[in-house]
Amino acid sequence: MLHLRNGTNQYHRRPPASPVAPLEGPLHTRGPALVAGALAAACQPAVARLDPAPAGARPAALSCAVDWPAPYARAAYVSNHGGPANRDRVPCTGPATFAPQWHALPGHLIGQPNTFSPDGHTTYVSSTGGPDGCALHALATQTGETRWARCDLGHALVASAVDVDADGRLYFTDGATVHAADPDTGDDLWQTVLDDRDQGLVYGVKLAAAGLVLTQVSDGTVYALDRQTGAVRGRLDVAAETGFVPPAVQPLPTDMLPPYVWDRIAALFGTPDRDAVLAALGGLLGASGAFADNTLAVSGSRVYTVGGGPTPDQGAVVALDLGPTGALSLAWTAALAAGSASSVAVGPGGDRAWLADGAGTILVLDLDACDANTDADPDPGGCAPAWTHPQPGIVAGSLTLGDAGVGYALTIGEHRRAALTALDDQGTAGALRFARSYGPDEFFTTALTLSDDAIYGVLTDMPPLVYPGGAALPLTLGPTTSRAVVLDPETGAVRFSTPVPSSSVTELIPDPHGGVVLTMAGLAEVLVLDPEAPAPVGGILRLAP
User: Fold this and answer.
1) Are residues 100 and 541 in contact, defined by beta-carbon separation less than 8 angstroms?
2) Strand (E) positions, 281-360?
3) For 32-85, what is each residue's pLDDT tens digit?
4) How far is 387 from 427, CA to CA, in rounded Å?
5) CA-CA distance, 275 to 155, in Å (whole number)?
6) Is the peptide bond before 259 cis (omega within 30 degrees of 0)?
7) Are 506 and 111 within 8 A, CB to CB?
8) Hey, what's the torsion of the CAs at 162, 131, 289, 344, to 10 degrees?
9) pLDDT tens for residues 184-242?
């Protein structure tokens, strides 16, 4: 179903308050007191604007521009997981050290990384509604000042990063509605409502050549839309085409959560509606039971998705061919013995794919062999991995891929042996480059972003952990809960670290002006089973070199 809308938003001003917090004193004690009273803040429909940044705040020239494939812009970060192939690799030289410069949008849970305009001067952020009801924001990259904000979007927007094309247009999903928006105002250029039997979270879009926008809704159906109009150009129901079924639902232990945890959750989400909150949390934590709850990968004319499999306890990678007009067809599938746990990440040559299953096994697929049916699976419609690397613990998020066949995987969970594992792809086997842990109770709460000479991420101190119903909940938090780190790509050693105000679930990314930016969810601070723990902060933080 297609809806076109141009310039129909109503405009309202945000209540008078500064969107940028000064950064003085211990970061882990700062931020607003997020209490249930914040829920009384009115949700203002449509678009709110503030005055532009004062004269003299002229942005610096770009220090990081990337040759992303068309139709993406050359800005440092333009899509979830660092680009269409989900490699979390930004080929720029990022800062070796940095210090907090500004902190905006406190009180908002941000579940996806921010992205940048083609000129790098604006960054776009999706979030929960938080205390002001606004969920989509355009901020000045170097000052954090709000250029505009949209307050008419739902909680499902938290699952979608904002993809940016070379013309500066914005694309995102709010549930099963795909939006294209004007970068100067946030107004919809078009919106298209897609069918979705599961009505779960939809994890954003990817852009492809021939003027296409691609997304996968939670029931597993992949759509190709016209980038100019939003018209549906192609559609493939993966579940119906393959006969695969959704994974088993992993119920969250919500009945065990004390009232103070619910107060924190309600404040960050900006609503006391527990059903809406549980739907969003279940999706973000991979417990929704949706057929698809990961991000598409796009490499050339091939689309890769991961989700449901032959049984509720299995998963599968599905490779689709994308025609020049948007037609989608099934190429092959690769079954995963223990369900899916990460999005597919495609290597720089387009011939290798990395991912992890639900048991923590890392798998590498030889895509050319799968296409030619020269892999170990004799079925032309199947694909067997080139090699696997079983290891204890759950692999969090997508793997980060380097240019020389190296993959970095984060390990979490009750039985983790290392927080970071690096493997070299040797064709038919993986060689361990290193496996490291950090503080005795530190977990990564970001995916890792690889630059030309460093790895960026956030470690969060969560001692000890309890596992009711299979979910990990911290009993307490360390004195400085989270720290942003710069790691050596060859050894995983920490070169530099600095405290940050809140834990994350996204990425710490290089920005176009030589700094790094962190979007924060604050889930560790929300879920900690300690009524005296500091209030969760959330928001977005820029750290300048």
Assistant:
1) yes
2) 297-299, 302-308, 315-322, 328-336, 345-346, 352-356
3) 222 222 222 333 333 333 333 344 444 456 788 888 999 999 888 999 999 999
4) 8
5) 11
6) no
7) yes
8) 30
9) 999 999 999 999 998 888 999 999 998 999 999 999 999 999 999 999 999 999 999 99
Query: Which two tokens mark 256?
Result: 């065990």
Nearest to 41 by CA among 10, 14, 9, 11: 14
If you count them, how many residues does the chain have? Answer: 545
| pLDDT tens column, 345-382 | 999 999 999 999 988 899 999 999 999 999 999 999 99
Residue 426, CB-side half-sphere exposure with 13 Å CA sphere: 9
Cα–Cα distance measured from residue 461 to residue 459, given in angstroms and rounded to the nearest whole number: 7
Kindly give, in sequence order, each residue whose CB lies less than 8 Å from that of residue 496, ignoring residues fewer than 6 positions away. 96, 97, 98, 485, 486
Instruction: Name residues whose C-beta falls within 8 Å of residue 129's C-beta, 6 or more positions apart in sequence.
Output: 43, 108, 135, 151, 155, 269, 270, 271
Calpha distance 220→411 (Å, rounded): 27
The set of residues, in sequence order, having a beta carbon less than 8 Å from that of 93 and lying 6+ positions away, is 64, 451, 452, 453
pTM of structure = 0.87
